[in-house]
Design goal:
GO cellular component, one term: bacterial microcompartment
CATH class of the largest domain: Alpha Beta
Radius of gyration: 29 Å
Number of strands: 13
CATH topology of the largest domain: Alpha-Beta Plaits
Keywords: Bacterial microcompartment, Coiled coil
Organism: Clostridium magnum DSM 2767
Strand order of the largest sheet: 11-12-10-9-8-13
Number of helices: 8
Structural class: alpha+beta
Protein name: Propanediol utilization protein PduB
CATH superfamily of the largest domain: BMC (bacterial microcompartment) domain
Strand content: 25-35%
Helix content: 40-55%
CATH architecture of the largest domain: 2-Layer Sandwich
GO molecular function: structural molecule activity
């Protein structure tokens, strides 16, 4: 029903009520009619608001507004988003390849290693490129990092799929992150490194790769030493609070080599790191379920 017509009917009904009449039934009936039309007017206005929101990509799910850019969320205060067609000025500032217009974005308050490992699986499964991996000084006040990972693709469906794969795999990659009030130990392993690990750490493509993290930093240093002495592995990167991290209270090393050797080194580092935190009177526990 057209709103102008509704307004005219309301005006006429109000005039009727203003006329003095001894017929109380008529007044009650008229008031009821006004009520019904007022309700209809409200419904019409709500429908128009919904149409307006839908036009700009907003809809409601269980009374919670969501937008088309939203893909999902995961452990670690992680959110996954997608931009179908990035603004031209941003595209230029971000120095993106002209062929890429769509971006998949994963950002987290807690966790960097788990997200990079999950993103590494995502680029293996999709036609995307990793254009940025940045570590933020975050962990909601803890000793470690948050993270920002950006995928780029020619087709928005690829960017969205990369984000979906990452969000799903983060549950697994958090399995060997052990936390407590005193600090944390974090371990990651893959038999075949891909583009995300190459972007973040310079990992040799296609080779076994491990990440070893300990906080506070002293724990990380002992873990690193243990890992290097345990098996014949090659040190790829070393990062400390003032060099290679976002001033986090960690020491982080990455290693490569034979698959069995890398895995053995990671496991040895895990045992010594957890042992040190326990000796501090803490009980570090896995965030989800260990996978190494």
């Amino acid at each position: 029903m057209d709103q102008e017509i509704i307004n005219k009917v309301l005006e006429e009904l109000r005039k009727k009520i203003n006329i003095e009449s001894s017929n109380s039934d008529l007044i009650k009936s008229t008031a009821t009619e006004i009520n019904s039309i007022e309700n209809l007017k409200s419904e019409l206005q709500e429908e128009k608001l919904i149409e307006k929101e839908e036009k700009r990509g907003v809809h409601m799910v269980n009374d919670i507004p969501t937008i088309t850019e939203y893909v999902g969320c995961a452990i670690g205060d992680t959110v996954g988003l997608v931009i179908a067609n990035i603004d031209g000025y941003l595209h230029e500032k971000m120095k993106l390849d002209p062929k890429y217009r769509s971006l998949g974005i994963v950002s987290a308050r807690t966790g960097a290693g788990p997200h990079i490992m999950a993103a590494d699986e995502a680029v293996k499964a999709t036609n995307t490129e990793i254009v940025a991996i940045e570590l933020a000084r975050d962990t909601k006040g803890g000793a470690g990092h948050g993270s920002l990972i950006i995928f780029a693709s020619e087709d928005v469906s690829d960017a969205r799929r990369a984000v979906e794969v990452t969000l799903k795999d983060v549950e697994r990659t958090f399995g060997d992150v052990y936390g407590c009030d005193a600090g944390h130990v974090e371990l990651h392993y893959t038999a075949r490194a891909s583009l995300a690990l190459e972007k973040a750490f310079g990992a040799p493509l296609g080779k076994s790769f491990g990440i070893i993290v300990g906080a506070p930093a002293a724990v990380g240093l002992v873990m690193a030493d243990t890992a290097m002495k345990t098996a014949n592995v090659e040190l790829v990167t070393y990062a400390s609070p003032n060099d290679g991290t976002a001033h986090s209270n960690e020491i982080i090393i990455t290693i490569t080599g034979d698959s069995g050797a890398v895995r053995q080194s990671v496991i040895a580092a895990r045992e010594v790191g957890i042992g040190i935190l326990k000796s501090m009177g803490q009980n570090p526990v896995s965030t989800t379920k260990p996978y190494i």
